[in-house]
């Protein structure tokens, strides 16, 4: 599908590209080294309207169309992936959880401040022994004589160390039960503990664990309707986030690569004249454009409120794996400089790796796509003997 941008879309893109290029991108190396995102970046992005793109006017948003949202996400991810992740996890993923699942009380208390950039949010689902299988979650909301309490630990959570509020996926009443719910948790409450986890890329974004030691929860902070279907619908925004992050990173790598091959001399000429180099650039460019067009279509459909699940899955699979290929090829093209921190390529490569396993990993998305094609329930697994047919049982049975 070809997208002809409207004049308002082009004007927003010009203005936002300028902000990202002049203000956000020059800080990217320092963000990576220091492991923090400057407050001025949050302020500038809020003032530019980025945080408001994804929400309705009653919550301080501007209800931007999906194409504008996608273009903005690519621009910010191209400038600094850590900043993009942290800010977008807050306003897009946590914000959508609040807007689509919660009621007016939480909208006023948390969603409006998130859209305004006054507070930061996160979504806490995964645990040490539980990722894409919600049946493995053990964090529990239970009732005592003194009211509701939350107990458990979530791990590998983006913005864990910096967020003011978390939307937590938990079990109700029994850690082995089947009933799930969402709990909106004020992370300043007694009983909340945080711990940072070391990571390969996205150094500027906080990433770690949230532990809940019998944290007090009010009744209006619990959202009972937390089916797998509804969870997947909201989590699609996270997969779209990862898709655009990958596209932004690949775009930055291709741009850096193009500048390098036209200025780096070998045998008296720029290395761009080498067949290996220019054929590599052409492949990188084609891969990037294919991912961008698919992502624009997904963003357009999602922006209109229509169902786009299969396309979201396809876009995340293709774009996130494409970004790793493109940044890897860029590192090869830079030669030894590709592994130096004096060039941005090694950071772009490290950052690109996070998008593949984040949320639902791409291999799990392949399962979901294939199961939908053949009519199989991708969330139900019957027990079976893995080892017996191959003669590998060690217990003699």
TrEMBL record:
All residue ranges annotated as the Acyl-CoA oxidase/dehydrogenase middle domain in the record: 122-215
Record keywords: FAD, Flavoprotein, Oxidoreductase
Keyword Flavoprotein: yes
Domain (Acyl-CoA dehydrogenase/oxidase C-terminal) ranges: 237-355
Keyword Oxidoreductase recorded: yes
UniProt-listed Pfam families: Acyl-CoA_dh_1, Acyl-CoA_dh_M, Acyl-CoA_dh_N
Coiled-coil region: none
InterPro entries, sorted: Acyl-CoA_Oxase/DH_mid-dom, Acyl-CoA_Oxase/DH_mid-dom_sf, AcylCo_DH-like_C, AcylCo_DH/oxidase_C, AcylCoA_DH/ox_N, AcylCoA_DH/ox_N_sf, AcylCoA_DH/oxidase_NM_dom_sf
Cofactor field: FAD
Acyl-CoA dehydrogenase/oxidase N-terminal domain sequence ranges: 6-117
Recorded family membership: Belongs to the acyl-CoA dehydrogenase family.
This protein's name: Acyl-CoA/acyl-ACP dehydrogenase
Lineage per the UniProt record: Bacteria, Pseudomonadati, Myxococcota, Polyangia, Nannocystales
């Amino acid at each position: 599908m070809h997208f002809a941008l409207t004049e308002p879309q082009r004007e927003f893109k010009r203005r936002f590209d300028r902000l990202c290029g002049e203000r956000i991108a020059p800080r990217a190396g320092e963000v990576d080294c220091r492991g923090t995102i400057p407050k001025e970046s949050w302020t500038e992005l809020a003032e530019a309207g980025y945080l408001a793109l994804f929400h309705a006017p009653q919550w301080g948003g501007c209800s931007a169309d999906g194409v504008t949202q996608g273009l903005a996400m690519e621009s910010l991810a191209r400038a600094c992936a850590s900043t993009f992740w942290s800010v977008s996890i807050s306003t897009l993923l946590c914000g959508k959880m609040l807007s689509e699942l919660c009621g007016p009380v939480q909208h006023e208390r948390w969603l409006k401040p998130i859209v305004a950039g006054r507070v930061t949010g996160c979504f806490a689902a995964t645990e040490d022994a539980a990722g894409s299988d919600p049946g493995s979650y053990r964090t529990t909301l239970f009732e005592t004589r003194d009211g509701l309490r939350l107990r458990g630990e979530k791990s590998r959570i983006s913005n864990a160390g910096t967020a003011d509020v978390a939307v937590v996926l938990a079990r109700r009443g029994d850690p082995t039960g089947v009933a799930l719910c969402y709990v909106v948790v004020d992370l300043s409450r007694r009983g909340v503990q945080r711990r940072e986890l070391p990571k390969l890329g996205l150094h500027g974004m906080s990433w770690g664990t949230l532990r809940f030691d019998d944290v007090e929860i009010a009744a209006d902070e619990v959202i009972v309707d937390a089916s797998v279907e509804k969870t997947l619908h909201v989590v699609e925004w996270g997969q779209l986030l990862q898709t655009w992050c990958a596209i932004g990173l690949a775009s930055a790598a291709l741009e850096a690569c193009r500048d390098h091959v036209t200025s780096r001399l070998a045998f008296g000429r720029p290395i761009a004249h080498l067949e290996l180099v220019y054929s590599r650039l052409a492949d990188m460019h084609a891969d990037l454009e294919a991912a961008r067009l698919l992502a624009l279509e997904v963003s357009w459909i999602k922006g209109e409120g229509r169902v786009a699940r299969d396309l979201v899955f396809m876009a995340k699979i293709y774009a996130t794996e494409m970004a790793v290929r493109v940044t890897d090829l860029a590192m090869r093209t830079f030669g030894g400089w590709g592994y130096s921190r004096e060039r941005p390529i090694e950071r772009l490569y490290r950052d690109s790796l996070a998008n593949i396993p984040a949320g639902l990993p791409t291999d799990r998305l392949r399962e979901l796509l294939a199961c939908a094609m053949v009519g199989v329930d991708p969330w139900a697994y019957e027990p079976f003997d893995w080892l017996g047919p191959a003669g590998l049982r060690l217990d003699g049975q």
